[in-house]
Amino acid sequence: MTASTELRTVPQVMARLQLGRTAVYDLLRTRQLASITLGRARRIPTHALADFIRTRLDQEAAS
């Protein structure tokens, strides 16, 4: 798997964003953060996390 196709777990995303479990699942539920489901597990592609952060930074800069 290349770096652009790596998958992160919810706890890894929680640590990266310094958010709680509920907040991360809210982002997933509202589709602000893209994910895939493998069986019962949610996985977040690394590029989706980077896109989410970039989008948020752009929104903050535009405010």
Automatic annotation (TrEMBL):
InterPro entries recorded: HTH_17
All copies of domain Helix-turn-helix, residue ranges: 9-56
Pfam entry (one): HTH_17
Protein's name in the database: Helix-turn-helix domain-containing protein
Species this protein is from: Streptomyces purpureus
